[in-house]
Design a protein that fits this description.
289 residues; 0% strand
Length: 289
Amino acid sequence: MTAAKNELTTPGNGRGLLDLYSNWFLLKLLVRKEIKVRYRGSVLGLLWSYVKPLMQFMIYFVALGIFLNLQKATPNYAIYLFSGIVLVNFFTETLGNSTRSIVENRDLIRKIFLPRELFPVATVLVSAAHFLPQVVILLGAALLVGWTPSFFQLMAAIAAFIVVGILAMGLGLLFGAVNVYFRDSENIVDMILMVVTWASPVLYLWTMARDALGQWFFLYQMNPMTVAVEIFHWAFWYPTLGEDQRAMVELPPHLLSLWLPVSLLISLVVLFLGQYVFRRLAVHFAQEL
């Protein structure tokens, strides 16, 4: 018999996100731990995933839809509003928690060596678990008002969700690593999260941004969140409209043929940059923490 050969690797010289495949069991344990810790001592538990977005939706709908009367100019404004909110909630929760993921798991990182990417990626999966109940509510509301989507609209919505997930993971890796060295990163992320809802057509029509920005509108469209929200509106809100209402609605041009591939490319670049910075800084996480 020949003895098995054990290969030693220098910490920090792993394969980055590719190491997650061989550590899938650890990733599942982290996701389970994050969910248990978050709802420890909570009466409602996972039901908060329904309550919080519903409260957020009600505030925006009353303030903008009723007080500012945006629902008059936008048919089925409640569906329009909520289809954008659920996607932005997924992004903000992922980015906020992944930024703090390394610092909050300092005790575990100090004791054992494991792929550091497990922690921010686990927050993405936890956010996805919270995203699903919100989508169920969105689907139920859309069905009540006659939602009839096409196959391509459903596939586009899945593609938009993937784009947002990639973007959030890339930014989470970047800020999660930098936050170990400079805790001001959390404040920077908090400011980004305040801007996200208003930097995409969640609460207003995209034509308002086009008319206001003019020739600079293309910069607005290069935001992957903008494209993803517009696709969610096309997939969940637009199919609820009648023929006469659709004739009055202007859809963003080249949404799938141009802007979806551009947003995917930008998100992949952000992911590559985030992974690069994360791997360079992860070598000294234990010492810095």
